[in-house]
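Lab intake sheet, docking and co-folding queue.

SAMPLE TYPE: protein with bound small molecule
LIGAND NAME: pyridoxal-5'-phosphate
LIGAND FORMAT: SMILES
REQUESTED OUTPUT: full 3D complex as structure tokens
PRIORITY: normal
SUBMITTED BY: R.K., bench team

The fields below were copied directly from the construct record.
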Amino acid sequence: MPTNTDFEMPERILLGPGPSMVHPRVLRAMTQPLVGHLDPQFLRLMTETQELLRYVFQTENELTIPISGTGSAGMESGLCNFIEPGDTVVIGVHGFFGNRLCDIAARYGATVRRLDKAWGDVFSPDEIEAELKKQKVKLVGLVHAETSTGALQPMTQMSEVAHRHGALLLVDCVTSLGGVPVEIDEWDVDIAYSGTQKCLGCPPGLAPLTVGERARDVIRERKTSVRNWYLDLTMIERYWGDERTYHHTAPISMNYALFEALRQVKEEGLETRFARHRRHAEMLWDMLEELGLELHVPLENRLPQLTTVRVPQGIDDGAVRRQLLNEYNIEIAGGLGELAGKVWRIGLMGYSSREENIRLLAAALKEVMAAH
Ligand SMILES: Cc1ncc(COP(=O)(O)O)c(C=O)c1O
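RESULT FIELD (auto-filled):
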């Protein structure tokens, strides 16, 4: 590859499950001059980022920070800091990311009781409670917005059930944060994490995390040290807290991007943002149904920011996606796990959630489907 040519990537219309499109303001923020990770200006940006994160998570939790790493780093820190070998955890698995939670928890020595449901279904508090009655459980893990299925897990009563049985409630908000209401304090969620590349409209690279007092007590009472050095919150919080002690070099430019993306969320306002995601999702659903396509998740549990649509019989899933990308510059995704080859996943997240993108996709899909 010649090294004296400009490095250029195509400008795609990203309508998959993430990363979503990034506003030029956020991209520009990443080109700001680099400063040191203890520079007073950067420390100020950190404090403001924490305030903005509390706003999007709708929480007063002091320990609200972006973990360095993608959503999976958020997942891992949400588990490794609270699990000690021999603890029992209950994980609701109704898609690909519930499976990942089980895998990570087991690697930290937990006994994992998995509750399985059809991919696309959601759990009721009674189903969770029935499992909690059987044994002492340290933590219940649920995926709020399952990106592999397009289903939104209701959170009503989930914390009451977990807390009644002495368990912490951990919620994966990777795809939900910034797209649908995430009310950490109102729902009394103990630990929640997200990713920057979905409805926050930022590139992948950071994992917003918030931890409540009940969960912080569990960290304080640990008998063993956290088995993951990099994600050990007792050390990371000294950098994000008053001490500002070095732990690892913060990814400076990524933090600029998150800061700017969060400022945009605040400018738009959460309610307006949720309404925009909903309005555009409804446009998309109408458009897909007009094309004779069937949606995988019933309306009452359907996520606005990620729609799963069944691949019609006889249509080559991959060929349609390739054609959309090669001829129309549009990215949508195929199914994951047991939905592979059965659904397409269409994301309208953050800056991707715009009317013009839906119109473009509608026109492109119509032509591509006719050709197939
Ligand atoms: C619900 C959910 N959880 C966790 C993750 C993992 O995030 P990442 O791929 O950023 O590591 C994803 C990624 O798509 C996700 O959708």
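REVIEWER NOTE: The first strand starts at residue 13 and ends at 14.
SIGN-OFF: pending second check by T.M.
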